[in-house]
Specification:
This protein is α+β, with helices and mostly antiparallel strands and about 120 residues long. The chain contains 2 helices and 5 strands, in the order ααβββββ. It has one domain. Helices cover about 45% and strands about 25% of the residues. Helix 1 runs antiparallel to helix 2. The longest helix is centred in the N-terminal third of the chain and has 33 residues.
């Protein structure tokens, strides 16, 4: 882990995370719509191959922001982000899943997503 967040630091970053996550979700949906249309030879009101490439570039930029801030991107559909941290003196990941309005979960490294517990 390069950067370690306290719960307060991670929560302070959440407004920007939520903003960028919302942008990512919109771009992801647009890219899927255009790619699906292209795959079956249809057209999309959202554009064609040039627009698909633009959506891909914008997605890459947002993903780069997350990783540049020290977050670990675990999934893009749904969006799953981890903030490296420590809980009770042990390495852990503060865990945020698309659709959650706040950062409220963590899991120990060895337990993964299935071992998520509430941040107290």
């Amino acid at each position: 882990m390069d950067r370690s967040f306290t719960v307060a630091e991670a929560r302070a970053l959440m407004p920007e995370v939520l903003k960028r996550a919302g942008e990512l979700v919109e771009l992801r949906a647009s890219l899927i719509e255009v790619r699906t249309a292209l795959a079956v030879g249809d057209s999309s009101p959202l554009g064609g191959l040039p627009e698909a490439k633009a959506y891909q570039a914008q997605l890459s930029e947002i993903v780069g922001w997350f990783t540049g801030e020290g977050l670990e991107l675990k999934g893009i559909a749904p969006l799953l982000l981890d903030f490296p941290s420590e809980v009770d003196g042990e390495p852990a990941l503060l865990c945020w899943l698309e659709g959650e309005r706040e950062l409220g979960w963590y899991h120990k490294l060895a337990h993964g997503f299935a071992g998520r517990r509430r941040i107290v």
